Amino acid sequence: MGKFDGVLLASDFDNTLLNTETARRTGAEVPEVSRRNWEALEYFMAGGGRFAIATGRALAAFIKFADQVPMNAPGIVCNGAALYDFQKGTGTGAPLRGRAVPQQFVPVEPSVHRGAGQRPRL
Length: 122
What we know:
The chain is of the alpha+beta class. 18% of the residues lie in helices and 15% in strands. A hairpin with a 4-residue loop joins β3 (75-77) and β4.
């Protein structure tokens, strides 16, 4: 068992995991995830943790950055309206219906928040 078994961590992308504000304002390239953040996420995942992006961006607006973010859990896109497994290329949710995205459901087991200090089961 790893130190982070059973823990799911989700982070916003824009101006949380990395600063995209400068790129938005100036038209510059979006920077890469910092080495420190990348290493911290790799450490977390190596210890059994699951990491996902939770972004307000539409899938089409985020997918070009997906390979720049270490993830081992399906991401949340479209302000929570859809799930997308970037490793498998499958997703579910109303915003993805009728698109060129496969409609298979992502195998995600729901968990229930049990309050402060209690870890949910994944």
